[in-house]
Design goal:
mainly alpha, globular
Length: 127
């Protein structure tokens, strides 16, 4: 399976640091940085759709990065970037936590529930 091949090649460890790119380089939430973070969320979400990789992704530190993105890019911010980053981060969290109680608890302890609930108030139909 291609997902296994990608994960075994080290994709998780290469992608997870991109979830906190703007924090690591001290950059504001620009569209280009937001695009990189959004695509990193998308890739993590795809890899996490396979249950056998969820723990590896969580252990690589994806949850703090995803929750930080949910908090930094509330969909109420103006412009197209915040809702798309928030949507991809929420998708990745959903895939990671799917049928995995340990990761669900990690989402809660990382403070991920309030920003996920805040997404319910967005006007973006895609969120």
């Amino acid at each position: 399976d291609m997902v296994d091949t990608v994960v075994n090649a080290g994709a998780v460890e290469a992608i997870v640091p991109l979830l906190s790119l703007s924090q690591r380089i001290g950059e504001e939430c620009t569209a280009s940085i937001g695009d990189i973070e959004k695509e990193a969320c998308y890739a993590i979400g795809l890899l996490a759709s396979k249950a056998t990789h969820q723990d590896r992704i969580a252990n690589a530190g994806a949850l703090p990065g995803l929750v930080a993105l949910l908090k930094r890019y509330p969909p109420q911010l103006p412009g197209p970037t915040p809702p798309s980053v928030a949507r991809r981060a929420a998708d990745a969290v959903t895939n990671l936590a799917h049928e995995n109680n340990n990761i669900k608890n990690q989402v809660r302890t990382e403070g991920g529930i309030p920003p996920l609930v805040a997404l319910l108030e967005t006007r973006d139909a895609k969120v």
